[in-house]
Amino acid sequence: MSDSAPATTVVVVTWRGADHLAACLGGLATQTRPHRTLVVDNASDDGTDRVLAEHPSRPDVLRLDVNTGYAGGIAAALPHVDTEFVAWLNDDAVPPPDWLAVLETALEPDPDAPGPTAAVTSRLVRPDGTVQSTGVVLTPDGHGADTTAEPTDTDTAPFGFCGGAALLRTQVLRDVGGVPAEFFCYYEDTDTSWRLRLAGWDVVSAPSSVHHLHGASTRPGSAAFHRWNERNRLLMLLRCAPAGVAVRELVRFAAITAVLPLRRTRPAAANFDPRLRLGVLTAVARRLPGYTARAAWLPDGRR
User: Angle 274-287/243-259 helices, nearest 10 degrees?
Assistant: First the structure.
């Protein structure tokens, strides 16, 4: 690879992103580092194809026949990536000009680092200026959650990257099994981060701030949101947690599901709907043969 050849392919997954995709592509067009932009269009039907065709940056486009979600889109793009790094970027995120430079620099070899680094996550900032995420933390019971802690030292380093804006080593991502396309969306970043750490790699956070609308394609709090979150968390535990932890959380989820119909009142959130939870348990049971629990639990979210 020549000095001028791009080291990174930025993958942008979009679905019905006509209203906000141009801003994302505009941010990528200002980057100070050369890169390739690959947009995965998840069968959009809202004029997204016109935005892509007319944008002056002329991104490469991979059009899919069906909506495969964010995880499916990243997975579909990976065979088409031949650069050292691959960036994940939401279509409703707008990076500053130095975004890619900061992330690529963070993945340069560092003799003082505690271990080799495979992924770096960005700081995501909401439209009102508040910080949405500086990475993902993992709770002792296996929930992934955004953290807003500034990673000034190892005590506040994130467990994983937030898939809204991150950079990964392409070959390492392939080596640990790629992206869980079956997740559709949510937890694909935490699952991937966990597999990276189990393989001995670190995940770090970079100070570059990316403006993020958040929820432009999916509605947080909706039934679909909770269904994907609950299902994918359990699948992640079956793949990455030791058997005892995975079974404990699966039994806990099933027990709560069983008693909910007996309660006179229950929380209004969709994830307390017994029908939704039964659907989650059915989906997990169908996929159970393909998931193997690991024997390396990271109770404090760190390796």
Answer: 150
| 3-state SS class at 298 | coil
Within a domain: residue 96? yes
Residues 41 and 83 in one domain: yes
Whether residues 136 and 284 fall in one domain: no
Same domain, 69 and 148: yes
* Whole-Å CA distances, 14 to 5, 26, 111, 118, 198: 26, 15, 38, 25, 30
Convert the pLDDT of each residue in 166-190 to its tens digit.
999 999 999 999 999 999 999 999 9
pTM exceeds 0.85: yes
Question: Taking a C-beta distance cutoff of 8 angstroms, is the pair 206, 120 a contact?
Answer: yes
CA distance 37 to 27: 11
Q: Which residues in 18-153 belong to E strands, given as ranges?
A: 36-41, 60-63, 85-90, 93-94, 117-125, 131-133, 136-138, 144-146
Tell the residue number behind the tokens 């869980």, with chain if given: 180
**Distance, CA of 198 to CA of 56 (rounded, Å):** 42
Same domain, 62 and 151: yes
